[in-house]
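Page 42, continued from yesterday. The earlier attempt failed because a stray header line got pasted into the input along with the sequence. Redoing it now with the clean sequence only.
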Amino acid sequence: MFARVASLRLWLRRQWLYPWIGALTVAIVIGGQPLVARSADLIQFLAPLVQYVQLSNVSDAQEISLGADTNRALLNDKVKIYQNSAANSYVDRIGQRLARNSGRPNLKYTFQVVEDDNVNAFATMGGFVYVNTGLLKAADNEAQLAGVMGHEIGHITGRHSLQRLKQATVQQGIGSLVGVDRNQIAQIAAQVAFNLPNSRNDEYDADKRGLGMMIQSGYAPTGMPEFLKKLARGSSTPEFLNTHPGASERVSRLQGMIPNTYRNRTEGLSASAYKQNLRSFF
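This time it went through. Structure tokens are written below.
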């Protein structure tokens, strides 16, 4: 109990005390300036702090709305959805199976296949996951594909995209979600999802969450590290492995996290069944 109280006090200091100390300091520094100038400067300083606090308290409904806006921005500018209903249905079926065993099953998840030969997948807030056709072709079996998708769902359940959006909006000096053009926020979120790499800790966290989803969903958890190992051995490094941490380090950590009870599980490891599905997509 004492630990929880101490943790709460630390959180409160981070969320409220430090920003207001900073605001007070600025107010003192500019205290000798005319009142109008002081007000303008103070508002300009406080604006990013207001945005930071607002994005720290986004509800699930607000996050889903932000995700939908981001999805529209991505589809308008950055990605092209693969027009094959069988491929999209297949990926959606795998994704929904995993999402039911995620830390946030209440979200309405949307899984889409992107027409792109690069071996890549990414996710944004609110339950939106994107899987490239190049990744579908690169996987040897469904368990490997499920491992990548579980990792991306892990970014959503860990609210990693939301945290990166928070940082990006503060850096750009956007004052508040209230009254700000939604398209502007969506464009920033799209840039974050498409271009900004996740941190080392976020990648490890998504790996752990994704592995747990695979186990809970009945898949062979070995599919996740095996796919990373395969890609790392390739002649060219896929885009989503170019950021830290390195693939070999992730493989070692994942292999160490798989309980002995599940190491011999075979669900999703059939290469022939997977290739048969792919033949109807491409």
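Notes: The longest helix spans residues 2-29.
Reminder to self: strip header lines before submitting.
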